[in-house]
Design a protein that fits this description.
The chain has about 90 residues and is of the alpha+beta class. It contains 5 helices and 4 strands, in the order βαβαββααα. It has a two-stranded parallel sheet.
Length: about 90
């Protein structure tokens, strides 16, 4: 336990004040920079994807989108995945 290779986090920002959320994400980023692998489950998709190497978006228990932050960013389907929109409606 003194030298973990992976950290699993489930909703670490849930219910926290915005200032504390910033601190939580900064700490996660520092841990990643230090070489720790992080598996993060988070409702704040924008923040989570921005700090990820790869992300998976779930909808009704299935992967609806996956990719790098660049692939999931502009035009990558994040709004469609979260709002139930078609890709055409998203543009």
């Amino acid at each position: 336990m003194s030298s973990p290779t992976m950290l699993l986090l489930d909703e670490p920002s849930l219910g926290l004040a915005p200032r504390i959320v910033d601190d939580v994400f900064a700490t996660i980023s520092e841990l990643r920079t230090g070489g720790l692998s992080v598996l993060l489950v988070e409702q704040n998709a924008t923040r989570a994807v921005a700090m990820s190497d790869r992300a998976y978006v779930l909808g009704t228990g299935r992967v609806t989108r996956s990719g790098t932050p660049e692939e999931l960013g502009e035009g990558g389907g994040m709004a469609a995945a979260y709002l139930g929109l078609s890709r055409e409606a998203e543009s």
